[in-house]
Amino acid sequence: MSNVESAAIESGLHENRVFPPDAALGARLGGAAIGTLEAYRAEHARSIADPSGYWGEVARSFDWFTPWTSVLEWNLPDAKWFVGGTTNVCHNCVDRQVANGHGGEVAIIWEGEPMPGGVAEVRRFTYADLQRETARFANVLKAQGVKKGDVVTIYMGMVPELAIAVLACARIGAPHSVIFGGFSSSAIVDRVVDARSRVIVTCDGAWRRGSVVPLKANVDAACAELVGGASAIEHVIVVRRCGNDIAWTEGRDRWWHEAAAEAADACPCEPMDSEDMLFLLYTSGSTGKPKGIMHTTGGYMVYTGHTSRVVFNLVPERDHVYWCTADVGWITGHSYILYGILPNRVPSIMYEGAPNHPGPDRFWDIVARHKVTHFYTAPTAIRAFMKWGAEHPQRHDLSSLLVLGTVGEPINPEAWMWYHREIGGERCPVVDTWWQTETGGHMITPLPAATPTVPGSCTLPFFGVDAAIVNEAGEELPANRGGLLAIRGPWPGMLRGIHGDRARFVETYWSRLPGMYLAGDSARRDERGYFWIMGRIDDVINVSGHRLGTMEVESALVSHPSVVEAAVVGMPHEIKGTGIAAFCTLEPHFTPSDELIESLRAHVGAEIGAIAKPDRIRFTDALPKTRSGKIMRRLLRAIACGDESSTQDTTTLEDFSVLAKLRETDES
Ligand code: PRX
User: Which atom of ligand 1 is nearest to the CA of 437?
Assistant: First the structure.
């Protein structure tokens, strides 16, 4: 925050390509949720003028056990939605479909990573299957002493039992805390202690590019650290997936399949107060320990279900097959593989493995075989696909695709165009959805049949979202002035707190701008009202008093034919105060040279302006990333600043060797 004061953040990236919505798309989708920009504008205005009326109407399309008495009680920063209402999210995802005669329809299509003999392992789960399996596992949890309100920790690979475990927790009102299977045992320890969880659900191992990630061993290591502490783990339930050797602690460990075989396959859905906690999900802040973001029942259910229906334009009985490539360990997987999608009665694909295993066309093979209509992925994946080459998608029939989505970071226009052209065949709208773990669901996004898209812009706020670009005093800035992205007023999917840390919740999101939610992103709004995310506030660099979003410089670099991926950070500079350091990965047929550095500097100068020319450019085989694919800029910043100390927390690095290599070359 410190480096974003009241002055504007300069924005030099200008994009003029506009892609109007295809008038025939609504019909191909089986009906447009919102069919024109005018319809969007009218509904948005109505939702802002009367949030209670709007959300009350939306919420009535879900099942409630007892109706709410008021839609919203708002005492900043505390919102209560659907006050007094009771419901159950698992009921709305699963049991409701069965009760309405759809039990035989496919809810989840699971595809395994190994391809034994070149054949994909596929399992299909109907709503009736999910009802039986979630009930059975709910009974297993109860038999281990889990009661309503107890936090269950889930640390698994992308196996179907992960979805079943999550929904089973919702069924009995035990909040889950899913820890991404790529994290280490120390991440388990921190989260288990914070959540005071006594039960962990895990797997023997998880497949990752043909090798086994030892999940159970990591849980054992975490339990060993926790022994005798306040949060000792009492029960570990283990799914057998890889058949790898594991240690076993009698009395604590139980095989999933054995426990489930003994359990009854009926278990009622617990009536939950609308504001009862549904789950905790830990996310990193810019400093300090991970924050346990709390989401509750009614508002989150309504918000994720409604955004899924409108933003992806899901329609049942139209052969839609939806695939979100995220891991359930992240908010995207929670909201847009499971909770938002299942109530919409469209099959959701869950894929266990990596995008390039056994080959770089694995995703396109899955799209073609399952006739995927809706595909949702991240810019980092798209840039990897670009690097691997268009010949891989070109080998497969992607004509089933109707809507493409992206999430997680700003998408540079080059990647957007490639996605639109090579994956979408120039037929599919790209919905660039801006949102956060904290927001629960989509906040700023195009609607596929209504919003003209512009590469790199997440366009317009969703219904009920009053987004603005403000300065530090909370004053709205004019068009094209960069500032702080803020949300005025509550929305149903918003976080309800940080577990165990009220002060941090208030301080991080609600205290810096008067009466508004501070998203922590910098952004601008163009003359048509479209939002352009410029990056996290701490990714904004101040060069000679000019503020630049690192993402804009990165985007300019990536638009050069030699650069695949770029990360830009600030570094101390004698004259400018802060200079720009860029780390780039190159297309295979380019080699690093001084000429190339000069040509890149000139290119950025031409794209944005001389002020944005990197002072230093480093080439690297790969960039250090978190498991979710976000570039770890603070590590790069430390390298750029010459700080090689080991005080940086590297637990979320995808590949430690990347960092080691960067350090090595720096020293040479
Ligand atoms: O900086 C924004 C970026 O990701 C942040 C939220 O990260 P996380 O809580 O991990 O959730 C990711 C999945 C929702 C945001 O503050 N971000 C997310 N989506 C976009 C984005 N930046 C630009 N464009 C997006 N579409």
Answer: 9
